[in-house]
From TrEMBL:
Coiled-coil spans in chain: none
Top-level taxon of origin: Bacteria
Pfam families: YbjQ_1
Membrane-spanning ranges: none
Organism: Devosia albogilva
Protein name, as recorded: UPF0145 protein ACFSX5_02570
Length: 105
């Protein structure tokens, strides 16, 4: 499965546009990660726990996007856009959404 932020794929003509596909993941912020991140922010280090959670959420969102595209018979997803939003009371959750156009090559 080809996943691309571009709207065309060089040397690969698009035969059919199958529609919009998405992958969405919402992750909650764990109190221990919050505490650890706060301490790391004080000493100027990187918040590795958050970076790992963000990386996992992004990977899951892309997997969901690919699953949706495969389900409708796509060979590729083009024009992919990745967004992050803070949701929930007091910004307690992070939503990662990936959207693109499923196509047949």
């Amino acid at each position: 499965m080809i996943i691309s932020t571009t709207h065309t794929l060089e040397g690969r003509p698009i035969r059919e546009y199958l529609g919009l596909v998405t992958g969405e993941v919402i992750v909650g912020a764990n109190i221990f990660k919050d505490l650890f991140a706060g301490i790391r922010d004080i000493v100027g280090g990187r918040a590795g726990a958050y970076e790992g959670a963000l990386r996992d959420a992004r990977r899951q969102a892309y997997e969901e996007l690919q699953y949706e595209a495969e389900r409708i018979g796509a060979d590729a997803v083009i024009g992919v856009d990745l967004d992050y939003e803070v949701v929930g009371g007091q910004g307690s959750m992070l939503m990662v959404s990936v959207t693109g156009t499923a196509v047949r090559l």
